[in-house]
Amino acid sequence: MKQATEVMQSLSTELNYSFPETAIILAAGHGKRIKSQRSKMLHEIYGTTTVERVYNACAAAVPGINTVIVVGIKAVDVMNMIGSKTNNMFAYQAEQKGTGHAVQVALDEIKDENYSGIVYVLPGDMGLIDKETITGFREKFVASTSDMMVLTGIFSGPVESNYYGRIVRVKALDAHGIPSGDDNGKVIEIIEHKDILALNEHENYVTEYKGRTYTYTKQEMLDNREYNSGVYAFDYKKLKMLVHKIKSNNVQGEIYITDLIGLFNKSGYTVSASSPKEEYVVMGFNDKSVLKEMESIYRKNVYNLLKNIVEIDDHEDFFIAESAINDIIAMDKQGAPLDIRIGKGVYIGTGVKLNYNLHLKRHVHVSGNVLFGKNVVVWDNAELSCYPHQSFVIGDNVEILSGDIIKGNIVLGENTRIESSVNMTGSDEYPLIIGKNVLVKGTSYIFGSVIEDDIFIEHSVLINKRINKLLKKNGEVQKIRFYLPMPSGVDAIEHL
Ligand code: UD1
Ligand code: CA
Question: Is 159 helix (H, G, I), strand (E, B) or coil?
């Protein structure tokens, strides 16, 4: 696949071999159950794709970390979405032969023979993993001095719907009824759900740990609630040594990364497990309903973070981008009350700068570098936006009424009021600059114009116009009413 190789070369950057930590993010799989043309990895949680969220969590938890993102299905889309990042390589897994194979492909990108340190592996669909979880996992791995650690969860739903790989631990008694002593509770291996299902009903599952035998019934395996989250930490050198020893003798015929636990143990290396503080952080999704559930958890967290700082009318229906969340928290730390009210269905995108005493009513949509002044009210369904290279500045005490669509390079002066259903645009070449105390009555259309202070505009269409402040003899400012450009194209219009 030529195109993927080209994109991979143009977007990958060098790994920093003097930095002893690398995260491998697995994002090559198909995710058939999601039932979408899009790659599973490109599904969003609260406006950001899951694979980006995993990447961001790694980058935030370990500043300077190297990353290798394994892509395969819809590789070009996934790579373009992540873009070019420092110390990040994309690795191309042409055929999805399993999670262990994906790690093999990723490790091929580490070209330095002398590299040593920690390698983390994370699935790209774990959209709720955060900086704190990775930081905690990293600390535990380092403190454990083990050679490998797996992040586990405890399944709380009905056992029949637990499709995760199960963590098999040493029992108190071995197969001969002899106490396992110090080995009790040690992680032996991970067995995939599908492989448990394939076990013979009446035969025990038999495994070994440090030369002793342990047995488990099929039901015991199924009932085991401790599962593999799919996040691991490894000593790089040991991983590199063992990763090619993984076989594919399982029901799926795949190379499972999970087999490394058994392989590490058999090689005499230490394996440990730890659980995150909050269970939800390790959720992954295979279908749309779980994705929605994850989004709702994310939104709930945002709500809880902000609920006592700003007023959010509907805790299940709002969007505030990360940048604006951080601004709100920073403003709150300065001490003055914010008096920001966010109506149902409001969308506040990346780059928007909120201000004191702002009221965004129902379904207001704001995106881009929109800078609010103080005491601004925006009524229902208004849409305010600009492109990333543009700016949209709103003065203090501005009021924007229902259904207004205002886009592009814009300045709205203090105390200006834009009444309902006005459409205004400012382009790069022709920004729209509106002075102070201007009143624009409803259903006007204004493009790329300059309007001086104190002007009244009623039901007008103004394209590339300058509106001067003209004082009449009685001292009043000249009003602009019903201005329409000369018609053109009239020869195409006839009476019926
Ligand atoms: C995997 C684990 C399972 C664990 C579960 C947690 C294995 C064998 N099993 O199962 O123990 O409980 O995750 O969610 O690892 N991927 C690739 N290339 C491949 C295959 C997968 O990049 O060839 C990626 C997928 O895109 C995904 C991740 O690896 O992001 C996990 O793969 P998935 O197929 O979802 O594994 P599970 O069957 O869920
Ligand atoms: Ca999965």
Answer: helix
- State the Cα–Cα distance between residues 104 and 260, nearest whole angstrom: 12
Q: What is the mean pLDDT of the chain?
A: 96
Q: Which residue segments constitute the domains of the chain, with CATH numbers given?
A: 2-152+228-282 (3.90.550.10), 157-224 (no CATH), 307-492 (2.160.10)
Q: Residue 127: CB within 6 Å of ligand 1?
A: no
Tokens (6 digits) for 491 = 């020869």
206 Cα–ligand 2 center, Å: 26
| Positions in the chain whose pLDDT score sits under 50 | none
CA of 323 to the centre of ligand 1 (A): 31
pLDDT at 31: 73
Instruction: Name the helix (H) or strand (E) containing 11.
Output: helix 2-11
124: Cβ below 6 Å to ligand 1? yes
Q: Is the CB of 257 under 6 A from ligand 1?
A: yes
Helix, strand, coil percentages for the chain (3-state, nearest 5): 25, 25, 45
- Token duo for residue 310: 């700003």
Q: Is the CB of 90 under 6 A from ligand 1?
A: no
206: exposed, middle or buried (Cβ count in 10 Å: 0-12, 13-18, 19+) = exposed
- pTM of the predicted model, to two decimals? 0.89
Helix (H) or strand (E) holding 206: strand 205-209
